[in-house]
Amino acid sequence: MKAPYQLTPMHSWHVQNGAQTSVVDGWVRVLAYRDSQAESKASNCDVGICDVTPISKIDVQGKRSGERLQELTGMPLPDVGGCASILLKGYSKAVYVVGLSAERYMVLAGAAVRKQLYTHLAEAAAEPGCVHVTDVTSAFAAVQFFGPMTTALLKKLGSAPVDQIQSDRCVQTSTARVWSLLIHHQAGQGSAWLLLVSRDFGQYVWESVLGVGQKFGIRPFGMLAAQGITGMEEIDVAAL
């Protein structure tokens, strides 16, 4: 019997467009579409997008959420709209913490550590106080943008001043007329953007981005091209 696996909301689009797929960390992931070298070149010269929905997304909120997270990190947390790669006490890998409000944070990490990370945060939240930890990995579609034309593309998709948003900052905005969280971060030797939208709108936003992105030379890429673009196993927040 095959092990169970999950599909991203853009899965049917990937299959219809010739994606080569494999099950990785319990998710069906795109390895490449047709030519991973061409995908890598397009992402370095123009703009590339990658479906990274499987990255772990843990919502931490409540009046004592910041206090509890700071106890786990031993260092200041990012302010509202700020993001930071942080090591948690008793946890072996860095996570990426996004400040959504004074009482709410999103903790991001690689897909492989989702259960371990959720358990670690939930156990810390179990102490007295108002802290709620929720695994929202499947609730949000995630798209990674990489390439020099990304900023120009994002400006066409919404009103956020993306050309003014520094690295390790985020903005809650509308992208393709859908609420989204846009995160500007470092990826390998360059910068990238991570877009989170409700899973229900994942394929719509993906197709909208591709449509608007045609004039910018957009091309979707898979996990094989990601390694060529940044030297990482895949472009996602796991390496931040």
Short summary of the structure?
The protein is α+β, with helices and mostly antiparallel strands. The protein contains 7 helices and 13 strands.
Describe this structure in words.
With 240 residues, this protein is an alpha+beta fold. Helices cover 27% and strands 34% of the residues. The chain contains seven helices and 13 strands. The protein has helices at residues 11-16, 36-45, 65-73, 114-125, 150-157, 202-213, 223-230; strands at 20-24, 27-32, 47-51, 56-61, 83-87, 94-101, 104-109, 132-135, 140-146, 169-175, 178-187, 190-198, 218-220. The strands form three sheets. A six-stranded mixed β-sheet has the order 10-11-12-9-3-13, sandwiched between helices. A five-stranded antiparallel β-sheet has the order 5-6-7-4-8, with helices on one face. Strands 1-2 form a two-stranded antiparallel ribbon. A hairpin with a 2-residue loop joins β6 (94-101) and β7. The longest helix has 12 residues, at 114-125. The model is unreliable at 230-240 (pLDDT under 50).
